[in-house]
Amino acid sequence: MTTPHVLERAARCTQRFNTLFAEYFDTLGADLEVPSYSRFTPDCLRLLRELSLRGGKRMRVVLLHEAARLVTDEPADGLDAAALSIELLQTHGLIHDDLIDDSPTRRGGPSTWYAYRARFPDHPQTALGMTVLAGDLALALSLKVLLDAEMPTSLRQAMVEVQTRTAADTFTGQIVDLERDFGTAPGEDVLHGVADLKSARYSILAPMQLGLLAAGGEPGHVNGELRAYARLTGICGQMRDDHLDLFGDAASMGKPVGSDLRQGKHSYAVRHLLAAVDGAERRIVESALGDPACTDEAVAAVREIGERHCVPERIRADMRRHAREASAIAAGWRPRWRSEAVAFFEQLPLWTAERNG
């Protein structure tokens, strides 16, 4: 399978899903029991729609469909419902992440948190409460869409179990993500655990499990391999994000570098930096870490220190090592599943490690 063919298939999948997602929101108001006197509920649904439809690459949806292709190239029941569930859970995560991080923008528009702040400038608790409730509603809808889907009861139950477990794992990851930046700098095992729980479980593992279920596969029999693959690929992706946050190109990424540094996050990049420097250089890094007023010049100085100590190269080496390990796990699936589809999962971690945006 050549890369152009994979990209074309992913583009078709994304385009079809975007249409499906818009149609879902078009009918959602009639599907929910919304009191006629409520003004806030329709507004909340509109904000959910706006954020959800501003989606990017829809890689979770692509992973879902590619996982089904491991078993069969025929249409599979439940894929549409599973795709909606995955992206509604993502919407929930984005809303709460932006609230936790106090982020003003998301996907080229205002975050839900800042949209509510603008609506209720004199009622900050209302803005806070509505943001939390909007995220909670997206989570509930991610499960409801599965419960309402026309598919065999056993499949519906299995998919709901996957998404419920995934949500719980993600929340635990978010808690540990906040916890890691208190006290002593976390070790690599903690960073790996956060990347696994907060990201890999719902971005990689759950889409693969749901896709296999929809296609009639039995992911429970290979759950250990799927978890290992998702964990390694997720760690690789988090390392890439952390690397780009400090050492990436602001122009190509469309956002300034150094946000993790300013927020005091003990990212993979920060961990490598602190391990590489001492004396005056370490004091420069530590003075910038957690300083929201840290200037662009100070970030540039930290970045220069990291480059001088080959920190970007060390992070990239770690990324490639994890990518190769994940790819090797996927290669072992060839006797079990369709070789053409396995190739996608072999290449995915390697592509993740090399992606620059």
Largest sheet: 2 strands, antiparallel
Low-confidence stretches: none
Distance between the termini: 24 Å
CATH level 1 class label of the largest domain: Mainly Alpha
In the CATH classification, which architecture of the largest domain applies? Orthogonal Bundle
Which word captures the global form? globular
Fill in the CATH topology of the largest domain. Farnesyl Diphosphate Synthase
Radius of gyration: 21 Å
Strand content: under 5%
Q: What structural class do you assign from the helix and strand content?
A: mainly alpha
Q: How confident overall, as mean pLDDT? A: 92
Number of strands: 2
Cofactor: Mg(2+)
Protein name: Polyprenyl synthetase family protein
InterPro entries: Isoprenoid_synthase_dom_sf, Polyprenyl_synt, Polyprenyl_synt_CS
Keywords: Isoprene biosynthesis, Magnesium, Metal-binding, Transferase
Keywords:
Polyprenyl_synt_CS; 16 helices; globular; Polyprenyl_synt; mainly alpha; Polyprenyl synthetase family protein; 357 residues; 1% strand; magnesium; metal ion binding; Farnesyl Diphosphate Synthase
Structure description:
It comes from Streptomyces genisteinicus. Its cofactor is Mg(2+). The chain folds into two domains: 1-157, Farnesyl Diphosphate Synthase, CATH 1.10.600.10; 218-357, Orthogonal Bundle (Farnesyl Diphosphate Synthase), CATH 1.10.600. 74% of the residues lie in helices and 1% in strands. It has 16 helices and two strands. The chain has a two-stranded antiparallel sheet with strand order 1-2. It is globular and about 65 Å long.
